[in-house]
Amino acid sequence: MDRFVLAGAGAGVSDRSLAEDRQVLMEFAAFVGAGLWSVQPAVVDGWLAYLRGVRGLARATVYDRANTLARFYDFVLARYAGEVHARTGCVVVQPVDEFNRPRHTDYGMVRVPPSAAEVAGLFDGWRGQVAGARKYLPTARNYVMTSLWRRAGLRINESVMLDVADWRPELGRFGKLHMRFGKGSMGRGPVPGWCRASTGWMCCCSGG
Question: How big is the chain by its Cα radius of gyration, in Å?
Fold first, then answer.
């Protein structure tokens, strides 16, 4: 456990996150009451059910704790599986598997996205209110920024650092935005859902 935390420190994980990881592992060890090298998936099934049903922890909290435990066992399997077997005779397994690992922080909840008509109604109504807003410039700014998130997939920090000169309407059919700051400027290649070129240019999906 100490070496898992040390490896995280070497990777640049913050002290706060490392302390939280260690606390999760200590709580799990107390729940198991036996050597962690012998844990099977059924034990984690019971632990996750205990966290949700008995302790009443939020879904996001249980999600984070399951991921912490999974990372710990990935670490043990990668570095110490042979040593553990030699010392204890146990074969370490990854007890957080495809059946008990929460997929998202809102697992267990049904999420129904808004329909295209509802989204259009929101933005059409908002656009109609911009001209008569008491403070025109902030309202217009908020509308444009939100439209960029919806239409082109920009992140918030990428949006707030844009300048008017970054909009290049003469480039391409719909124009382009120059991503000079933020994650989109780092040349990370295509991202599903929108077009992000390795040069840091982003194609807008609309001329708006």
Answer: 24
